[in-house]
UniProtKB/TrEMBL annotation:
One of its GO terms (molecular function) is glutaminase activity. It holds the Pfam family Glutaminase. The keyword Cytoplasm does not apply. The keyword Repeat applies. This is glutaminase. The lineage of its organism: Eukaryota, Metazoa, Chordata, Craniata, Vertebrata. Residues 508-529 are annotated as: Disordered. InterPro entries: Ankyrin_rpt, Ankyrin_rpt-contain_sf, Beta-lactam/transpept-like, Glutaminase, Glutaminase_EF-hand. Residues 508-520 have a biased composition (Basic and acidic residues). Its EC number is 3.5.1.2.
């Protein structure tokens, strides 16, 4: 019986069963971090559901249906189930995230912003955290489906789009790269009469005038980051921002007086566009995918679309790191060591570069304008996990690193394989086979996984290693014993008969194939003579 990669994947998911309920398939998927709504999987899942409708009784997934629906997702699912995503043990990771979430939930204090009714209407108890990894693994806890305005969290995205479209040199002709040391809405410019950076209002307003597309198109671009998830403009917030935006108008006139805008720029249009950007509504769920696009060098993890250049993303992360958290930026860089941007709605967009993006949201703000629970969460996250930019990952570290470690280490691979065989863990063996681990590799005593499984009397493991993996049963360990010798020595009768049968078939097949090869070689010699 020959097994294809798809079959091996199927049995890894079903844990060796010939069919499983659809719901079980979905929960196995969720454990890897993939959601059934993932745009990459949507088509296949829809097909599976469709066949559900066509059948009576509970929907079962068998090999045939799986093969039919899996389509282009073999690689994605294979990586998910052989634990090759950036966070391999996603379930464990999210348990810890939930604990950190719970601890932050108890943080009372802070004030909900009330300068516009759209912000004041939110309950101080709302609290949500969503994350999306660079492989598109997703987790949501708390109030993650409630829309809120991005407010200043949009500034890094606006800046990134400007860099992507115009390049860093052009953008920085109009805006600096240093923290201002002042409040975000201060009427202040640097020594060259430019806004201090793109994360304060003056910088964001000038950038609004630089982007050479109409607001409508740019909106589409912002949504591009999030093509498959709904974002929309809150017209009420936009109107209120306009009506209460005296300070921003003052900044606009100041910028105009100091000739900060490019020639022929329309200051009022730039302000309007800035107000619109602040009024884009997201949820924690959609915001985390935006953050993950920044974590992933500009490629949206769940669509695979490149929406920003790698250089635009790198520059954006640098300025988020130094200027993203108002007057708390220095302390945040010190304690948390990650690029982030907060907004007056209580949102904190957090990026763990090359790992994941997060959106934390809770309306009560501290004295400096940052979400009280958001800050608490970020600090706890980095005290537990080694995500701080300057955490040392090579030497002994008391913190936890949930990232995938390189499993290229052959010693580790053989130990894991032997351990799985010793404990009869067929699921693990299946995962190793799916990961193209050499199932015939030998340990220090020249023993294979088949020796170990046979000596322990694990019938299922022996069947898997022989029938599916076609491991050579004739290999001898350093004492000259084959797996069959071991099964006999330890008195595992059933395993003895499985191995005897397999050994006979194996010897027969290999002697006939070698005589076929021999006669083919003779034929070719004859024809060349
Ligand atoms: O400019 C304003 O007043 C707001 N719409 C933006 C507020 C905000 O989140 C502050 N950020 N730096």
């Amino acid at each position: 019986m020959m097994f294809s990669m798809v079959d091996l994947l199927f049995y890894t998911i079903t844990d060796g069963k010939e069919m499983i309920p659809f719901s079980q398939f979905i929960s196995a998927l969720r454990k890897t971090g993939l959601l059934p709504s993932d745009p990459r999987l949507r088509h296949g899942i829809r097909q599976m559901r469709q066949s559900a409708h066509d059948s009576s009784g509970p929907v079962m997934i068998d090999k045939k249906l799986f093969r039919r629906c899996v389509g282009n997702n073999v690689i994605l699912l294979t990586n998910a189930f052989r634990k090759h995503f950036i966070i391999p043990d996603f379930e464990q990771f999210t348990l810890q995230i939930n604990k950190i979430y719970e601890s932050a939930k108890h943080q009372e204090g802070g004030q909900v912003a009330d300068y516009i009714p759209q912000l004041a209407k939110f309950s101080p108890d709302l609290w949500g955290v969503s994350l999306c990894t660079v492989d598109g693994q997703r987790h949501n806890v708390g109030d993650t489906k409630i829309p809120f305005c991005m407010q200043s969290c949009v500034k890094p995205l606006e800046y990134a789009i400007a860099l992507h479209e115009l390049g860093s040199e052009r953008v920085h002709r109009f805006v600096g790269k240093e923290p201002s040391g002042f409040k975000f809405n201060k009427l202040s410019l640097n020594e060259e009469d430019k806004p201090h950076n793109p994360m304060v209002n003056a910088g964001a307003i000038v950038i609004s005038s630089l982007i050479k597309v109409t607001s409508k198109i740019l909106f589409k671009e912002v949504q591009l980051i999030n093509k498959y998830i709904q974002t929309r403009l809150s017209r009420c917030s936009f109107q209120s921002e306009r009506e209460t935006g005296d300070r921003n108008y003052a900044i606009g006139y100041y910028l105009k007086e100091k000739k900060c805008f490019p020639q022929n720029a329309d200051m009022m249009a730039a302000l309007d566009f800035y107000f619109q950007l602040c009024s884009i509504e997201v949820t924690c769920e959609s915001g985390s995918v935006m953050a993950a696009t920044l974590a992933n060098g500009g490629i949206c993890p769940i669509t695979g679309d490149r929406v920003l250049s790698a250089e635009a993303v790198r520059n954006t992360l640098s300025l988020m790191h130094s200027c993203g958290m108002y007057d708390f930026s220095g302390q945040f860089a010190f304690h948390v060591g990650l690029p982030a941007k907060s907004g007056v709605s209580g949102a904190v967009l957090l990026v763990v570069p090359n790992v994941m993006g997060m959106m934390c949201w809770s309306p009560p703000l501290d004295r400096l304008g940052n979400s009280v629970r958001g800050i608490h969460f970020c600090q706890d996250l980095v005290s537990y996990f080694s995500f701080h930019n300057y955490d040392n990952l090579r030497h002994f570290n008391k913190k936890h690193d949930p990232r995938r470690r390189s499993d290229d280490d052959p010693n580790k691979s053989v130990v894991n394989l032997m351990f799985a065989a010793y404990s009869g863990d067929v699921s693990a063996l299946r995962r190793f086979a799916l990961s193209a681990v050499d199932m015939e590799q030998r340990d220090y005593d020249s023993r294979t996984a088949l020796h170990v499984a046979a000596a322990e009397g694990h019938q299922e493991a022996v069947i898997f290693l022989t029938e599916i993996c076609k491991v050579n049963p004739l290999g001898k360990d350093r004492w000259g014993n084959t797996p069959l010798d071991d099964a006999m020595q330890f008195g595992h009768g059933v395993v003895v008969s499985i191995l005897q049968k397999y050994q006979n078939e194996y010897t027969e097949k290999h002697s006939s194939s070698s005589s076929e090869e021999h006669s083919a070689a003779l034929d070719s010699m004859k024809s060349s003579l």
